[in-house]
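Q: Given only this backbone (274 positions), what sequence would you predict?
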């Protein structure tokens, strides 16, 4: 079965994400479990956690994926920001564990001029402080200045250096394309497979790219109408193993097409790639 969904709002109550996802036809979803623009992880009551876990068991929406907030920078060498970032990561991972969430996706952040080596070391040390069982997934970057993780070799180095219980990576198709991996061609997809291994790829962020190959700009476009395009994604999914990965769309929604209709169209496209 193809597992595909959207990043879903948790406004009002965290368990309402299941209702919203189900209403538009998702069979997997991604959420923020706290304010994405805050350092503070939201407190949840035992009742809220129970409601979330109850709906999780009663829905065919799996896996459930959480995304780290935007502010933490686990690659930073600044002692204050670093401590706050590690604290946020650990608290978010713990809450994911309490909610029964399968994966927590995290950006690796920016070395802020301290050098790639220092950034990688800081990111590894930060993630290694996670003590719970939630799967921590590294998300590849688009290659913005000083960012860590746009080079798949760096991703592999970081994964190999982690000693946490459950780890892997989330491949963002827009970010890979923006970083210079032309996934419209089999050679780039094979390169990613050879460097990282598809067994470590737990989730795909299925995003088209607003800007052309190698732009280093993290700007998503709706599926099939960006610079990757339908033909590009058709080539990408010639690697059939990718169709078994849960996929999350983080598309900008600039068009009038309702999400449920867009999701049906993308499912039809993916079924045609089998």
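A: Predicted residues:
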């Amino acid at each position: 079965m193809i597992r595909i969904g959207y990043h879903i709002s948790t406004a009002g109550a965290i368990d309402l994400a299941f209702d919203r996802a189900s209403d538009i036809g998702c069979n997997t979803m991604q959420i923020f479990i706290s304010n994405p623009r805050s350092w503070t992880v939201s407190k949840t009551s035992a009742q809220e956690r129970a409601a979330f876990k109850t709906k999780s068991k009663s829905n065919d929406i799996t896996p459930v994926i959480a995304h780290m907030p935007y502010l933490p920078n686990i690659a930073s060498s600044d002692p204050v920001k670093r401590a706050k970032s590690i604290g946020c990561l650990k608290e978010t991972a713990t809450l994911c564990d309490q909610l029964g969430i399968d994966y927590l996706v995290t950006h690796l952040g920016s070395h802020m001029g301290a050098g790639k080596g220092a950034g990688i070391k800081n990111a590894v040390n930060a993630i290694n402080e996670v003590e719970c069982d939630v799967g921590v997934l590294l998300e590849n970057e688009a290659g913005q200045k000083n960012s860590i993780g746009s080079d798949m070799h760096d991703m592999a180095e970081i994964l190999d250096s982690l000693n946490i219980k459950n780890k892997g990576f989330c491949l963002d198709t827009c970010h890979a394309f923006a970083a210079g991996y032309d996934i419209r061609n089999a050679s780039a997809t094979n390169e990613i497979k050879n460097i990282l291994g598809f067994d470590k790829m737990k989730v795909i962020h299925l995003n088209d790219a607003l800007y052309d190959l190698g732009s280093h700009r993290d700007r998503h476009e709706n599926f099939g109408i960006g610079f990757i395009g339908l033909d590009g994604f058709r080539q990408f999914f010639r690697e059939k193993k990718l169709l078994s990965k849960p996929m999350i769309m983080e598309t900008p929604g600039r068009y009038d097409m309702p999400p449920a209709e867009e999701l049906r169209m993308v499912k039809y496209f993916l079924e045609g790639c089998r």
